[in-house]
């Protein structure tokens, strides 16, 4: 098997784990509150990533030691990314208690379309086609979430807030990575910060018991260890052997897997209107990731050459 195919399969498995994690999150809510789930899942993510960090550290010992400045920017980046990730995850987890896993997967995927729009506020220019993709996404969200009387389901609205937070999260990650932060270590730190934030919210709003946490062990382990540790590692390795465009397209299948696993495991059924909305959202997400070439006019001088 070629390295490209191995990379593609790893990223496909990553998308499946992330998508099916929506079902785990939804199932976990049968036993514990959203903030308890967020806290424990995040701490499990930290534990799952520690072996990856140790392995990468042993490989780097033969090269150059990390400079103090890189360590500092990694911790700062991890702190800010963790705060944003914690808020995004809280919106998503609470929203999942009020909507289906399938719908949540597609609404969350809107962050891919939202990112270029948010980029405007930090001085980046976006192509005209992005507005077209956004329009498709908005129509899809309307069909997926807006009910009679133009009301939006509270759960769908919370997951949409999560998508906006994820958009800011991606831009924040991009900023700190450009400053030289370590990818995996920053991710581990952000899970730690997100877990602390979830723990604070748990103390303020929930009273979980050890029995209820134990009952939720399977969803927690799936979302914490597999979704955070295993899938993240597969993403890192898979992207080494796959073209960036193909990688993002494969990982965008997360929303499709969320709907499929929601249908198979939780027996969720979407109406024809909602299915059409899912299709339009997925179409917008796919188009937003394909780098269509921009045609330019050929001058007379170029034609003569």
Q: How would you characterize the overall build of this protein?
A:
The model is unreliable at 294-305 (pLDDT under 50). The protein is mostly helical. Helix content is 78%, strand content 0%. It has 14 helices and no strands.
How are the SSEs placed, and which strands pair?
Blueprint: H1 3-28, H2 34-60, H3 68-96, H4 101-108, H5 111-119, H6 128-145, H7 154-178, H8 183-205, H9 210-215, H10 217-240, H11 244-251, H12 254-265, H13 272-289, H14 300-304
Helix pairs in contact: 1-4, 1-10, 1-11, 1-12, 2-3, 2-8, 2-10, 3-7, 3-8, 4-7, 4-12, 5-6, 5-7, 6-13
In short:
The chain has 305 residues and is mainly α. The protein has helices spanning 3-28, 34-60, 68-96, 101-108, 111-119, 128-145, 154-178, 183-205, 210-215, 217-240, 244-251, 254-265, 272-289, 300-304.
